[in-house]
Amino acid sequence: MKPQAGHNNIDYRHVDTITVHNHPSYVPRNQVRTTANAQWVLTDLVDPKLIVDSFGMPTHKLLDPVLPSGTAGNVIANRLSENPKNQVLVLEAGGSNADVLDIIVPLFCTRATPNTPQDWNYTTTPQTAFNGRSVPYPRGFVLGGTSSVNYMVYTRGSKEDFDRFANVTGDDGWSWDSLIPYMRKNEHFSLQTSDHHNITGQFNPAVHGFDGINTVSLAGFPSPVDNRIIETTTESTEFPFNLDMNSGYQLGIGWGQATIKNGSRSSSATSYLAPQFISRPNLHVLLNARVTRVIQTTAGAFRTVEFLQDLNGKPFTLTATNEVVLSAGSIGTPSILLHSGIGDSATLTSLGIKPLHNLPSVGQNLTDHTLLSVAFLVNSNNTYETAERNATLAAQELAQWNTTRTGPYVDNPVSHLGWLRVLNTSIFDQFPDPAAGPNTSHYELFISNGLLGPAPPTGNFMAVSAAVVSPAARGSVTLSSNDPLAAPLIT
Ligand SMILES: Cc1cc2nc3c(=O)[nH]c(=O)nc-3n(C[C@H](O)[C@H](O)[C@H](O)COP(=O)(O)OP(=O)(O)OC[C@H]3O[C@@H](n4cnc5c(N)ncnc54)[C@H](O)[C@@H]3O)c2cc1C
């Protein structure tokens, strides 16, 4: 399936150091710079140490990387623009996140994807393990990227996960101890929930940050399954209670934490590009700008970005005087690199793309946590399905959310989480344990008082969704052609 074309409304906010020629809808705000080749000019971007790609790993040094605006991209844009000397431009292929109810109301997160205007609407190639089916592979196509469409569950990796990054990279900067200050710096843990309930015993304050930009909160509306889940943890050794699964030790069952602020989604667009930040004169955002390539400016340096605003129109280019940060996510980043001639040279040549840098690992080792939602029929009518089938009740609950930010719509559907390991470990006599260590889970459970998705005509449900969080399988992102608008092959 092809990615969606998006809208062609252009949102130029405070673009004051950039010149655009031949673009009828652009009216520069104040300072205009004219360049001989009619390109856009930016100044002073980026501390390379801050650059991360979609896996949270450093981007390839070749690209000291203008910013696609995803979850990571907006964080970097915010941090860089703290320095008034840096002029930062964020380019986003999708549209604005503002006023899109399905990506604001937490309970509506299951409607945000797949097959919506805010989704790239990718599908995988036919998967042998799925009996030849191809499945949706959602990615946010909107300001804030996937943080604008995800389920908002706030989870850090385990200490062992981060320490493994440090070992693999040989860079202690990726260890848990090195990164925890940054996790705190990101986080504004809210001590107040929408229903003002007592949150003592539902999290561990010692492991959180309270002064950051991205709000994290506990549920603000009680779920009918709350007590039963907590009772299970006292009755079963298989499912022990964990006060805070974000402490570095993740095993057990505990209360869900979510990137929700006052009953609304906190994405990297609403937090890191909030009004107090987007009003900075040196932070600029351009929507509906589809990057097609980065272009080599001098040997080994790619400082020019090519992008389209009209998918059938002529491309624009802009050149950063310092560097370009490529943060287009786990699918977008390798796609752009490959179309730019950075990848396996032989494969690129066979597609008619001129190879510029032989880097066979680009697009390889795609790792993801496959999730399957398991539904249980329940004999209660107090589940999400009831309101979904009753338009009057749904309208009342939405009105309650709208006026008071209370009621069931303030939360995502995941009340509790479990991080667990397979019980029968004899399989690891034959295969290496893919988890980072003995205190790191193999699978994650998301517990919800209803289905994660549209309600069928009858029945009430409880869902326990399972995600494989230490997968052994690896996939890839490759190109089907040299057309940068063609969807990549996700295998
Ligand atoms: C349905 C779903 C639910 C999820 N739920 C959770 C959850 O509850 N908790 C959790 O921790 N994680 C969750 N995730 C995963 C998490 O949201 C992502 O891993 C994370 O947001 C990725 O961030 P990123 O910065 O790497 O990429 P993204 O946030 O995807 O950012 C990439 C950005 O680049 C833009 N872009 C891409 N290509 C181009 C181009 N050519 N030109 C211009 N712009 C481009 C995209 O439009 C996007 O804005 C979920 C993911 C999905 C799909």
TrEMBL record:
Q: Where is the Glucose-methanol-choline oxidoreductase N-terminal domain?
A: 329-343
**List of residues binding FAD:** V142, T146, N150, Y151, M152, V153, V291
Judging by the UniProt lineage, the source's domain of life is Eukaryota
Q: Show the GO MF annotations.
A: flavin adenine dinucleotide binding; oxidoreductase activity, acting on CH-OH group of donors
The prosthetic group or cofactor this protein requires is: FAD
Q: Which UniProt keywords apply?
A: FAD, Flavoprotein
InterPro entries to which the protein is assigned, alphabetical: FAD/NAD-bd_sf, GMC_OxRdtase, GMC_OxRdtase_N
Tell whether Flavoprotein is among the UniProt keywords. yes
Q: Which family does it belong to?
A: Belongs to the GMC oxidoreductase family.
Name of this protein: GMC oxidoreductase-domain-containing protein
